[in-house]
From TrEMBL:
PANTHER family recorded: 3-HYDROXYISOBUTYRATE DEHYDROGENASE, MITOCHONDRIAL, 3-HYDROXYISOBUTYRATE DEHYDROGENASE-RELATED
Origin species: Albidovulum salinarum
Domain 3-hydroxyisobutyrate dehydrogenase-like NAD-binding intervals: 156-281
Protein name per UniProt: 3-hydroxyisobutyrate dehydrogenase
Substrates-to-products reaction catalysed: 3-hydroxy-2-methylpropanoate + NAD(+) = 2-methyl-3-oxopropanoate + NADH + H(+)
An example Gene Ontology molecular-function term: 3-hydroxyisobutyrate dehydrogenase activity
Keywords recorded for this protein, A-Z: Branched-chain amino acid catabolism, NAD, Oxidoreductase
Gene expressing this chain: mmsB
Enzyme class: oxidoreductase
Source domain of life: Bacteria
InterPro entries for this protein: 3-OH-isobutyrate_DH-rel_CS, 6-PGluconate_DH-like_C_sf, 6PGD_dom2, 6PGDH_NADP-bd, HIBADH, HIBADH-like_NADP-bd, HIBADH-related, NAD(P)-bd_dom_sf
Gene3D superfamilies associated with the record: N-(1-d-carboxylethyl)-l-norvaline Dehydrogenase, domain 2 (1.10.1040.10), NAD(P)-binding Rossmann-like Domain (3.40.50.720)
Pathway annotation from the record: Amino-acid degradation; L-valine degradation
Amino acid sequence: MKIGFIGLGNMGGPMAANLVKAGHDVTGFDVAGVTVEGARAAGTAAEAAAGADVVITMLPNGAILRAVATEVIPAMKKGAVFCDCSTVDVASARAVAADAEKAGLLAVDAPVSGGVTGAAAGTLTFMAGGSEAAFAVVQPLFDIMGQKAVHCGASGAGQAAKICNNMILGVTMIATCEAFALADKLGLDRQKMFDVVSTSSGYSWTMNAYCPAPGVGPKSPADNAYKPGFAAELMLKDLRLSQQAAEAADADTPMGELAARLYETFVESEDGKGMDFSAMLPRFEKRHRG
Ligand code: NAD
C-alpha cells in the first residue's frame, strides 16, 4: 500500500518504521525534519499525502490535527483513507472526519494504547471510529503496528474509548498511590501490600502491571527514578480531554474531575513535570493530611 505518514515523533516514528519493515511504500513528513529509515521524506504534509491510499497522522493535539487535515485533505486522491492515530478531543476527530468525507475520502479515528515500547514492538492496541468500509482498509495496517484493533463505532468512537480508558487509568493510579502512602503510615510493608492487593479485589493494571512502588511488582518507571514511561503531562492532557468531553456530553465524572485537578497541581505547581505519571506515589509520601 502507498502510505503517507505525518508526525514522526516518539510514537509515529516507530509506527512508520514497522510499516516500512512490512514492505509498504511509506512517505513521511514531520515539521521538525525527523525522518524514518526506508521511508521517502516529503517536504510538506500535502506532498506526503498526494497519491497515498492511506494517510496516517500521529500529532500532538486536536488543533494541530485540524490544521494538518486542512492542508492534507485536498491533496488526497478520492476514495483514500484519512486515519488519525493521535489522542485528540472527540469534537476535532468528528470535524476532521466530516471534512474528509465531504471531500470524497474515508476517515478513521484510531488512537492507540501501549506507549512507545508498544509502538516499537508493533504491539499497540487500536481503538477505531468510522465506517466499516474505512476500518476494513486500515485493519491490515493496524495488524502490523499493533496486536489488537477494536472497531468501536462511528467517527469519534475511538477517541471516546481512549479518553474513557485513560480516565480510569488516571483515577486508578491516584488510588493505588494514595493507598501505598497510607499503608506506609500504617507501618505495612510495601511488598506485603502488593502481595495482598494484587491478588485481592483492589487489583488493577496500575498495581499489578505498573506498580508505582520501586522494587515491588514487575519492573516499571518507579524502578527507573520515575522517568517516563507515560509522562504526567500526557496523563493531564488525557484527563483534560475526558473532562472536556464530559462537559460537552453533560456527564457527571467527579472522580475524573478530581484526578484532572490533582495531575494539574502535580504538573504545574509541584515537581511532576518530566516525571512518569506513577510519581504520584512520592508526592503522597511527602504530604500530610490537612
Ligand atoms: P511527539 O511529540 O513525540 O510527536 C509528535 C510529532 O508531531 C513531533 O515529531 C512533531 O514535530 C510533529 N508535528 C507537530 N506538528 C506538526 C505538523 N504541523 N506537521 C507535521 N508534524 C508535526 O508525541 P508522541 O509521543 O509521538 O505522541 C503523538 C500522539 O500520540 C499524541 O496525540 C499522544 O497523546 C498520543 N499517544 C502517545 C503515547 C506515548 O506514550 N507517547 C501513547 C499513546 C498515545
